[in-house]
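Milestone 3.1: sequence recovery, worked example.
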C-alpha cells in the first residue's frame, strides 16, 4: 500500500511539473503562426467542432483501467514517466497550434484556445491509450476485450487528429513512446 501511495504521489508531482512546463512554454510562445499542413488532417474528416470530447475517452479508459487492471502500480509508474517526458518535450518541441483558423475565429472555442496557443510533441492522450492497451494485453493477451481496447485506442487517437486537437506526428510518436515505456 505504501508503494502505491508513493507511486501515486510521484505521479501527481510529475503531472504538476508537466503542467508548469506546459504553461512556461505557452507564455514564451509568440502566437502568430498558422497551423502546419498535416497528412492526417487532410485524410480524416474535419471534426474540429467536437474537439471538446477529446478528454472523454481518456476518462473512460482510465476509469476502466482502475477498475479492471491488476497491476495498477505499473500504470501509475509508467504514466509518471510519460508525464516527465512530456514535461521535457513540451518546452523543446513547440509547434503552431493544430487548431484551424476557423476554430480560432469561433467565439465558442476562445476559452480553450487561450490554453492551447501551441502544440507540443507528443500526445499524452495517445500515449495513455497505448500504455493501457499494452498493460491489459500483458495481463491477458487472448481475452476478447483486447481487440476492443485496441480499436478504442486507435479510434480515439484518430479522433484527436480529426478534431484538430493534435498533429499526426504527435499521435504516432506518442504510440511509439507508449509502446516503449
Amino acid at each position: 500500500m505504501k508503494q502505491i501511495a508513493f507511486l501515486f504521489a510521484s505521479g501527481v508531482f510529475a503531472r504538476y511539473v508537466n503542467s508548469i512546463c506546459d504553461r512556461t512554454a505557452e507564455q514564451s510562445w509568440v502566437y502568430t503562426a498558422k497551423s502546419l499542413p498535416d497528412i492526417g488532417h487532410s485524410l480524416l474528416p474535419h471534426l474540429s467542432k467536437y474537439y471538446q470530447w477529446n478528454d472523454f475517452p481518456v476518462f473512460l479508459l482510465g476509469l476502466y483501467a482502475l477498475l479492471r487492471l491488476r497491476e495498477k502500480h505499473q500504470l501509475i509508474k509508467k504514466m509518471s514517466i510519460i508525464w516527465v517526458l512530456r514535461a521535457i518535450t513540451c518546452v523543446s518541441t513547440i509547434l503552431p497550434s493544430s487548431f484551424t483558423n476557423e476554430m480560432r475565429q469561433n467565439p465558442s472555442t476562445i476559452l480553450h484556445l487561450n490554453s492551447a496557443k501551441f502544440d507540443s510533441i507528443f500526445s499524452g492522450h495517445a500515449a495513455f491509450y497505448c500504455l493501457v492497451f499494452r498493460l491489459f494485453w500483458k495481463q491477458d493477451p487472448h481475452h476478447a476485450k483486447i481487440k476492443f481496447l485496441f480499436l478504442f485506442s486507435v479510434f480515439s487517437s484518430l479522433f484527436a487528429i480529426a478534431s484538430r486537437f493534435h498533429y499526426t506526428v504527435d499521435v504516432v510518436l506518442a504510440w511509439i513512446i507508449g509502446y516503449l515505456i
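The CA atoms of residues 89 and 132 lie 21 Å apart. The chain is about 65% helix and 5% strand.
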